[in-house]
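note to self: dont lose this again. the chain is below, predicted strucutre after it. 377 aa total, dont forget to put it in the shared folder this time
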Amino acid sequence: MRWFGFGFNAFGQICVHEKLVEGSDTVNEVKVINPTELSSHVDRSGCRQDIRASWSRRASLHLDGDGCVCLAGFGAVTSEECISVAESRGCKDAFISESYLTLVFPDRVESWDLDTKKKTPAWSMEIKTQPECSGTHLNLPLVPGGYIATKPPFYQSLSPHLKAKSLALGAEHAILLSATGAVYTWGLGSHGQLGHGGLISEEEPRAVEALWGMPMSCVATGGWHSVCISDGGDLYVWGWNESGQLGLPSQTLRKAQQQSGQQADASTSPREDPQEGEDDKEVFISIQAFPALVDITPPCEIKTVSCGSRHTAAVTTAGDLYTWGWGEYGQLGHQILSSDEPQRVEFFREQQMCVVDVVCGAWNTFAAVVKEEVANA
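---
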């Protein structure tokens, strides 16, 4: 499996591509438009590697053998692109925010302050070892009894009645998937990101009633929007759509495209070809307070999804990657700067690669791929 990255790269979190700036030292290319392979992830040994990302950093989690984490980006770039976090040796999972790296070990959880050089974690908590056969394995930010927040106080408890299976944290809200496939949200609701039909905030997890009775398999959240995948591979979205991150018509985005001279190809979507005199009838959505089904053309089943601050990336069961939303830094993986319609990233199809996973940083995207013959074996 190989990892590719594209989008915001000012701190070298994707790759160390330097350019000479007149009157100053060399600096990293800020935008990586075309998917670029992460050199530290060229898989020659067959070991399992995962990516975690924040706005300015990338954490590479090496899981096989004696697990460890390597960091790239702000404060971590060296001539070898990535530096190893010595304190991560033996970890089983990792979670990175803008200021903290959280590590899970068999017997404890630690959060390290990335902005200081302290040799001890900023916070730690002992955990009970989970039996391999218990079926209760949790991935960060979930831990037994609760979850780890992106900033202090780190540990937040959760009711055992929720039976949490996975959890995603947005800028100021959270979305939880239960073992039964139900979806719960809480936190700030000012952009409709909770999916309850209004803009009211919630202090405690509340079920998204519009999805009740439809089991979900995956949840993700951006800065102010939320998404989930049904067991049947349908994608539901809600929240802020200012940049088209929901895949729904965005008036702000359309106006920005017109002002910059970027006109969408009318042949790609009937939404872009209104009849004469009917332009004012097109419905634009700034905030979607209830879950809405995303239309992807051609029809396909979604396998997994991830969100950046204002963009979304989804992988289909056929191995294609679709992206949409804000793309100013190339985080959509194609030449269109921003889009309120899901667009396939053609690079991987052209290279005969199947995308198997996707992870978004705030302003960039990372995709895991295998060769088509491997995927079809």
